[in-house]
Amino acid sequence: MRSRKVSCVYGTVTGKAQSIAEQIVNHFSGNNIEVDLYSFEEFGKSWSLENLDTVIIVSSTTGDGEQPEALTKFWRKLRPKTLPGDFLSHVNFAILGLGDTNYNQFCNAPKKLRSRLKELGCVEIYGAGWADDGVGLEIVVEPWLEGLYPTITNFIQGKDNCNDTKNHTINNQQNKETGTAASDSSKMADTKSIEDTLNHLTMDNMKPSLTHSNQLANITLELPTCPPRYVDIQILDNAAVGQAGFGTISSASYQNGCKLPFACGPLTTARVVSNQRLTSENAVKSYMEMMLEVATPFPYLPGDSFGVVCQNTEKDVDNLVRQMDLASVIDKQCAVKILPDTKKPRAKIAEFIPEQCTVRYLLKSCLDIRCVPKKLFIRSLVDFTSADSEKRRLEELCSKQGKSEYNELVQENQTTLLQLLAAFPSCKPPLSLLVEHVPRLLPRPYSMSTSPLPQTDTGATVQQPPTLGFVYTVVESPRPGLCTTWLQQLARGDQVHVYPRVTSHFHAPDSADASFVMVCAGSGIGPFLGFLEHRKLMGVKGGFAWLVFGCRNKGKDDLHAEKLQNFQQEGYLSKLSIAYSRDEDNNGVKYVQHIIQSEAASVRKLILEDRADVFVCGDAKNMGKSVHDAFVEVLSEDGGDGADVMKSLVAQKRYKQDLWA
Predict the structure, then answer these.
(1) DSSP state, residue 568
(2) Residues 590 and 582 sit within 8 Å (Cβ to Cβ)
(3) Which of 3-22 are b and which e, b meaning 16 or more Cβ less than 10 Å from the residue's Cβ?
(4) The model's pTM
(5) How far apart are CA 335 and CA 357, in angstroms?
(6) Pick from 294, 201, 261: which is nearest to 12 by CA?
(7) For the purposes of burial, counting CB atoms within 10 Å of the CB of 155, is it exposed (0-12), middle (13-18) or buried (19 or more)?
(8) What is the pLDDT of residues 342-358, one digit of tens each?
(9) Are 522 and 285 in contact (CB under 8 A)?
(10) C-alpha gyration radius of the chain
């Protein structure tokens, strides 16, 4: 059925927007409604503004509230102020934005896109949804989709009872569903009988787990439509047997030559010069600093970032091979093709998947086998599970009724594909199903902690070759980090593969007389070490450079304390303030935001009178918002409107953040 041309277009960074867009197309396809699926990267190739009719947009946010790289060309097309107000009056649209409230500009990119589309005459036929990855996208995505499906169906059939364009954002504190057992237990009589007491104890001990739920065990389930299969993998028995090695990685061969995220240069090798632990052995967290000598150096400034290519561990790959019974073919070549009889419209193999490679290469270098499975992936796994009890439980987790249990036990608990398959041993998915559902194994970004300027040795006679340095946290919770665990084990002379990323403009001011405030915690100090080293190598002591640094314990994790003191004594750092959160003798200053609050007068003078820039680097969840709120509070004193001042600073690019989730 097709009475109007409907398209679903996604702009993705990590693959989440694409997954939701595919879910939308799959739902409509299962109801005999054809919806074309496009990426914003295909704009001008597979689709154009002129041939749009009804479009469903799923788009994310990147950087400091910026549009994903995939939207660059499309956004440039919409931006000219000379475009008339009816430029897109022929287009009907609905938009779902993905963001994270741990960052200040929540869903800023899709909100700006929505605003511009409406300015150009687009008709919004269904209210916008703003999904928050900080608490779980599903909280907003699922109800938004439930309303979208009938709205679009009615619209393309010419019916008038479309939903109004109310905003479908759901309160992040919304109560979760409660199971029938929990509600039944609340109705039990208040009795002292042993039987009732045991019933209550039993009820408490039967909370849902990944493999069992009393609440869902005997109810009728509503399952999502199973996505149509579209990948065919053939093992080439006569092909040369080999193991794709790390030593052959290049821009042309790695992950089929697919462009690396935010790359502005080719993949190159780098040699480890040093890999130093910066914290004491008894520190709560381990912080390391690695120095690299890059084979083909690329230009950068302190604050820029680069990507590090990592592979899945042999242990993880071996576990998956065992679970999927792939031991006999793991090092054989395979051909990846589209199923000839697939019902998936415009089916295509992901660009990062080679047409031919070893099975090992797919699992080790291409697929993120530690991913958290989406509901549609779990729905597909049901069909490859032989044990009835396991099949039923997987159905529960992907069902409408199992929404809260999926959110809690899979999404919030960050249960990986490896853990899910281990919990359901009779589930034996084919390799082709993983290629259909498992996202790309992405490089990890790190910020430079060094200056690109050549350094002079202690004898002041010989210039040392420039090295690229970065500070990283060894991730241990909720499980050891894939990349940082590997990096920690590297020794001098080992190789890593890196590439430059497009600049984020997280750079110290150009003027030698400019003032700026640097706020960081933990490994967030990295780019600011680069800022200060760069000032020293250029001989810049002007302006007022203030570093506010947060750590736990003095002498344990106050990273590069001696170097920072030297920067201050030499005049390259004007002021150094350190907050020790775990030390008792901290004068009431526990976190970096407390320093900002306690130094309110100095902060206001620097920002309002000296026009200082502010740089914030650290984790978004525990630091980014708290620091932002502290600045709002300080700038609101003396009758000011701190929120408006902060909005102005962000707009003027004077408040810059380099945050990670």
Answers:
(1) H
(2) no
(3) eeebbbbbbbbbbbbbbbbb
(4) 0.83
(5) 7
(6) 261
(7) buried
(8) 988 788 899 999 999 99
(9) yes
(10) 27
